[in-house]
Each structure stands twice: as C-alpha cells, then as structure tokens.
Amino acid sequence: MMLGLMLARAGVEVTVLEKHGDFLRDFRGDTVHASTIRLIDELGLGDAFRNLPQSRLNNVAFPIPGIGMVTVGDFASLKPPYNYIAMMPQWDFLNFLATEAAREPSFTLLMEHEATSLMFDGGRVTGVRYRTRGGADGSSREGELHADLVVATDGRHSVLRRAAGLRPKEYPVPFDTWWFKLPRHASEKGAVAGIVPAFRDRQAMIALFRDDYYQMGYIAPKGMGVRIRTEGVERFRERVAALRPDLADRLDSIRSLDDLHWLDVRLDRLRRWYVDGLLCIGDAAHAMSPAGGVGINLAIQDAVVAAARLVPALLRGQVTVADLAAVERRRRMPTVVVQTVQRIMHRAVFVPLFAGRTPGPPPALLFLLRHAPMARRLLPRLIAFGPRPEHAPGFARRVQRRNPAGSPTLPRSDSGRTVTNPETTKLETMTPPLDATAARARLLELIKELAVVRGKVILSSGAEADYYIDLRRITLHHEASKLVGQVMLALADDAGIDFECAGGLTMGADPVGTAVMHAAADAGRTVDAFVVRKAQKSYGMGRQVEGPSVEGRKVLVLEDTSTTGGSALTAVEGVRKAGGNVVAVAVIVDRDTGAKEKIEAETGVPYLFAFGKDELGLS
Question: How far apart are CA 221 and CA 243, in angstroms?
C-alpha cells in the first residue's frame, strides 16, 4: 500500500490487488517504528496518522526472574517527535494508507482480487492473473492484468514468487505462535503499555492491547501443534491461566480450538529478489520472525527504495533487471542485519526457555547496558530506526499549509486537478529533485559541455595533460550545482556511507559541500557543511576546520576532482585533528591518476567517485 501511494504521487499508473473484502483481519503486526513515523511525516501525513487510535511504547523491557524488568531500549533518549514506537491495529493503518492513496488520480485499489499466477512473454513477467467474486451468488471469475512491473507483496507464502521460480533460504525457528482474543473489562481500559510478555514453564505469552479486548499470543516450541489439538481446549485454557493468572476469569471466551489462529513462524530470505518484470519485497522477499516486531517497518523501507529507484524506469515504460537489482542491493544489508539479530534473540530467549533454562538477553548485552552509556544511547536508536532507515523520495513528499486566514483550502494534485474534500488543508507538492539516475545523466552532459577543456595544460601536480577538467564551471553553475548535490548524496547512499558532515579543502570542495548540504535538506535529512583551510589559522579562534563542529561526527570528505590526492589527504588530516570521524572520500570526477589507491592506502577509508574519465570520453 505504501509503495502504491508513493508511485501514484509520482504519476505512475499503479494498481494494488487485495484478495479480501476489507483489512479487518486479526493477529497482524502492530508496531509502527520511529523510522516509519518519520517517513509518514515526510509524506505530509503526520497529523492524520497521529489522530488514529494508537498507544505509545516508550521502552522495550525484558522480564528476568530474580531481577525483574530489564530495559534494553529507552526511547526517551531519542529526539522527539521520534522517541516512541506506535502500537496501532494494522487494519487502521492500512485503511489510512488506502484513503490517502485514493486521493491520487493514478492509484487504483481492487478489493477481493486475489493474484493467482504470473503471465510471461518469453522470459519476462508481463502481468498477473487474478480471481475475484463475480456476483451475488459468491461465484468467482478469472481475469488478467498486464503491467510493466509486478511487485510481489503477498507475504511469507507468496504465490507470485513461487510462480517465478524463486525459492528462499530458510533458517531454523524454534517456536510457533497461537493468536487468540480475550475480552477487556471496562475497568481495565485506558492508556496502557503496548506489549506485556510472560514466561514460565517452557512456554511464553504476550498481550497486546485493543480497545475492548486483548490480543494474546501463546508461544510454544515448533511441533507443539499436534499436542495442543490432542489435549483440547480445556488444557489450553490451563496453560494460559498458568502464564497470566490475572486473566483466568475470562478464559471461557475461548470456546474451542477454532478460536486459535496458528502462525507458522518462519525466517527466510530469497537469494535473489527479482526476475525480469517481477520484484519481491517485504515478507515475499524475506519472511521475518515476530521477534522485535520489525516486519511492517522493514517492508515499508523496501517500498521506499523500490519507489525511489523504479519511478524513472516506470515513467519511461522500461524497467530493466538492473533497476530491480539496485533495489535488492540497497535493502539486502539491513535485511541480513535484522534477521541475524532475530536469530540471536531466538537462541538467547526461546531456546533456553524451551529447554527449561532461564531466558534473557545475552550477558554481554546486560553488561553493556549497565556499564556503557554509549550502548544505552545506541540500542534505542537501533530498535526504533533499524539499520539504514530510508527517507521519502522528493516526488512523494507533500507539505501541509493553511492559507493566511487559517481556513482550509482545497487540496491539489500534481496535475493541478482539484480534489473535492473541503475538510482537509491544502496539499502542495514540494519541488522534487530529479531522480538520481536522471540527475547523474544530466550532470554528465553538463560536465562534458562546460568543464572539459581540450589542449595542453600543466596540472597542479606538475604533470602535463592534453585536457583540463575545470569543475568550478560546474560546482558554481546555476543548474549543475544542484545536480552535484543530488549525485554526490546518492553516491554515498549507494555505497552505504552514513555521514553527518560534508566538506573538504578550500576552495575546490567548498561549493561541493554546500551542494550536498542543500540536497540533503531537500531530502529531509540533516547534513552540515564545513571548510578545511590549508593550514591552521594563527589568529582568532585558531581553527583549521571552519563551520559547524565536526568533533565526534561522521564526516564525508569531498573534492571536485583529484589527481594526486593531495587536497583530500590534507582535508582528512585536518578533520581528524578536529576530532571528526572520516568515513569516506568522494570526488565528482576521478582522473584515474593514482589518487584512489593513494588515498585509500593512507587514510584507510573508501574513495568514491561519481564519474571516471572514460565516461567523459577522455580515455
């Protein structure tokens, strides 16, 4: 649904197929992490989202016998408004997204349409076949939907990935979950914590709070299903009462074992997430364990990258395998990290529990929580945002503004058509940056046109060349400067480089750092620029690095072009003296004269470049 919303905001014709008639299905994940809440704000939907029914989870704690609750993540240490996890029924969240997506003229949602197989033309996927109810008698009919791209989001038992011949690698999971409801008494209602766990006698249970009932999850070893069915409903009630005696007075609401919903917990990951014409994301690409409640959020992060990377290709009507591979390449690392953490949780908590031993966080983690302030600050962020949280692409963003009188005005779509909803504020599209691929292509054109000077010249290194690249004609150019920021930001993102400050040796790097700073701001990110002097000042504050402090911060050292690497090396040395943590060196154009090898050898950090001399026709 999130992918459909973002694609539609870019003007892509998109159809979402949902096999049910509504979203009201119990026992789906509830946790909306801070990374997703920030994304919703970037989409201009934050106020409406916060008005939905929800409770706030302010920390993650773990019960340990003899110790009590041990907090492994206190979100109060995070900057508001992203210092909590929202606990929200998933059907409310889906209805919210569907309503917002329906405002876009190019978005279509087809309820009661179940995708059953793929259509192929040669070796390429060209659409889906579906089944839907055909009439009042409940009969079904078959249909076909042709598409430039099919995105499989049909979960851990994905029909579409199987039809494409994609098979996941499975990892062992020690437990399954049985979900059921228990009523909440009137006296128990009100603001409550989001999740309450219980452990005892080789079994566990969690409780999630709804308006008028508890959503309960009974957790037991895999293979326990036959025993539960054989023992019958009365024995199951006894198990629940032993774990939560405070709820024993309402267990007769479990009338039979048919009231239980069995979840076959899986942890798997596709070796490849795509074939020509088809991309798998979310659980269809990587089924997640319920441990940590991260499944919704990881799937949404997949959707953000898919939208950002695929919109240009979809608007051209030609999506290549390379486009799909770029999505997987961006999202594979965070998926592997999260699944690895889940496997550690399984071994640390559930394996000991089912073996009759006391479960709990690994001793090393407890030690860090008690004695390492940095860990106490880092863990909440890792839980709330996860590895490599994504930002909304520029084309998907909206900002809400009221007219000067404060009265709401009609929302307008990108095409200028008016959406007739007088209850909303005016929605205006932010001026979107070009997609990274288009920005890179245009910048390359400008560099060839404006910056490459033919003829014999002496370089700063003293060497002679038959061409000169004058990148100040680019970095100070009214159009090219903005493209520089977008391209260099995407270059670092593609390499997985996370940074907070960008700059380099004056003066070649000065406009590059400024361009990156502004491109980050356009993307809703915070990056400060800085300038490194060639030598430390002997007056004033005596600084070599000017601008916001780089001390203790992750720094990307920039340069427009590099021949010997000397300027970048001077900048790295200055930043490190100022206490900055240099994470990479990046240049717009690499002349292929040994700078990469020298910089990487002397600094120990990656050297990135946006364009090589071959691309400029300078081989």
Answer: 16
Q: What is the DSSP string of 438-451?
A: HHHHHHHHHIIIII
CA distance 468 to 501: 29
Q: Is the peptide bond before 81 cis (omega within 30 degrees of 0)?
A: yes
* Residue 477 tokens, joined: 């150019």
What pLDDT was estimated at residue 418?
26
Is the Cβ–Cβ distance between 350 and 175 less than 8 Å?
Answer: yes
Instruction: Enumerate the H helices of 46-196 as residue ranges.
Output: 46-50, 90-101, 159-163
Task: Record the tokens describing residue 120, joined without a space.
Answer: 């192929």
Q: What is the CA radius of gyration of the chain?
A: 27
Encoded tokens for 135: 């009439």
Indicate the length of the chain as a whole number.
Answer: 619
Helix-, strand-, coil-residue percentages of the chain, each rounded to 5: 35, 25, 35
Q: Which helix (H) or strand (E) holds 513?
A: helix 510-522
Q: Are 326 and 275 in contact (CB under 8 A)?
A: no
Full DSSP string of 166-231:
--EEEE---EEEEEEEEE--GGG-SS--SEEEEEETTEEEEEEE-SSEEEEEEEEETT-HHHHHHH
- Amino acid sitting at position 479: E
Cα(346)–Cα(352) distance, integer angstroms: 9
Measure the CA–CA gap between 479 and 469, rounded to whole angstroms.
18
Maximum C-alpha span of the chain: 91
d(Cα 339, Cα 347) in Å, to the nearest integer? 12
Query: Which among 178, 310, 314, 320 has a CA at the least distance from the CA of 239?
Result: 178
3-state class (DSSP) for residue 322 = helix
Q: Which residues contact 170 (CB under 8 A, 6 or more apart)?
A: 266, 267, 268
Say which residues have a Cβ less than 8 Å from residue 493's Cβ, sequence separation at least 6. Answer: 330
- Could you tell me if 473 and 450 are in contact, meaning their C-beta atoms sit under 8 angstroms apart? yes
Q: Are strands 607-612 and 581-590 parallel, antiparallel or unpaired?
A: parallel
Rounded-to-integer distance, Cα 585 and Cα 571, Å: 10
Which backbone phi and psi does 481 adopt, to 5 degrees? -60, -45
* N-term to C-term CA, the chain: 47
Residue bearing the bigger pLDDT, 137 or 445 = 445
Written as one letter, the residue type at 506 is T
Query: Strand 195-200 to strand 175-183: parallel, antiparallel, or no bridges (unpaired)?
Result: unpaired
Helix (H, G, I), strand (E, B) or coil at 402: coil
- Whether pTM > 0.85 for this model: the answer is no
Write out pLDDT tens, residues 261-320: 888 888 999 999 999 999 999 999 999 988 777 889 999 999 999 998 999 889 888 899
Q: Is the Cβ–Cβ distance between 477 and 440 less than 8 Å?
A: no
Tokens of 53: 């029914």
β-partners of residue 56 are 86
* CB environment 153-176: b (16+ within 10 A), e (fewer): bbebebbbbbbbebebeebebbbb
Cα(401)–Cα(412) distance, integer angstroms: 12
d(CA 219, CA 298): 23
> For the segment 343-390, what is each residue's pLDDT rounded down to a tens digit?
988 888 888 888 887 666 666 666 665 666 666 667 778 888 888 889
Over residues 321-332, the pLDDT tens digits come to: 999 999 999 999
- CA atoms of 73 and 62, how far apart (whole Å): 10
- The DSSP element (H or E) to which 132 belongs, if any, is strand 124-133
Close Cβ partners of 372 (under 8 Å, ≥ 6 residues apart): none
